[in-house]
Amino acid sequence: MSVRSRISLKGFIIMFAILAAAFFLVKCTVSYVSAALGEVTQEDAAQFLTECGWKLKPDSASREEVMIPAEFSEVYERYNNLQKKQGYDLSAYKGEKVVKYTFQVLNFTEYDGSPCDNAEAHLLVWGGEIIGGDVCSLSISGRMVGVMVDRE
Fold first, then answer.
1. Which of these, 139, 133, 101, lies nearest to 119 by C-alpha position?
2. Sequence-separated (6 or more) residues with CB below 8 Å from residue 37
3. HSE (side-chain half, CA atoms, 13 Å) at 34
4. Quick one: pLDDT at residue 142?
5. CA torsion through residues 106, 107, 109, 113, sign
6. CA 120/CA 104 separation, integer angstroms
7. Stronger pLDDT, 60 or 33, i.e. the higher one
8. Average pLDDT, whole number, for the chain?
9. Using one digit for the tens of pLDDT, what is the confidence trace for 110-119?
10. H or E element: which one contains 82?
């Protein structure tokens, strides 16, 4: 083997070792950051809603990723105003992908106080924190409230 071949092989081995170490470092850092930030699980979300006074239909949960719009429309501004009344503000998450948990709610009422048999609760989660949420009727003329509405 020539001197030049040995140098190339040595360079390749060193480069491979550096890349392997960098990959390991990034993987460990991502795992550490994820663990440090924590995660709001489906069970955590259900417990939060239950503590807010909502009765949830068993096994009705779903989870999806949604995008907070980079620019808020008038409708989304109204939605964010609802969030602000509960101490949240989605403005800080414009353009971010967040997790949305959805649950069927059993104790929601329509405007006239009648029971609503088609209601959902939504919780928005980012970075291990609940950043917003609502409970709403799915009827065309239904209402929407914050998850922390005074239930009494």
1. 139
2. 127, 128
3. 6
4. 86
5. positive
6. 4
7. 60
8. 83
9. 888 889 989 9
10. helix 74-85
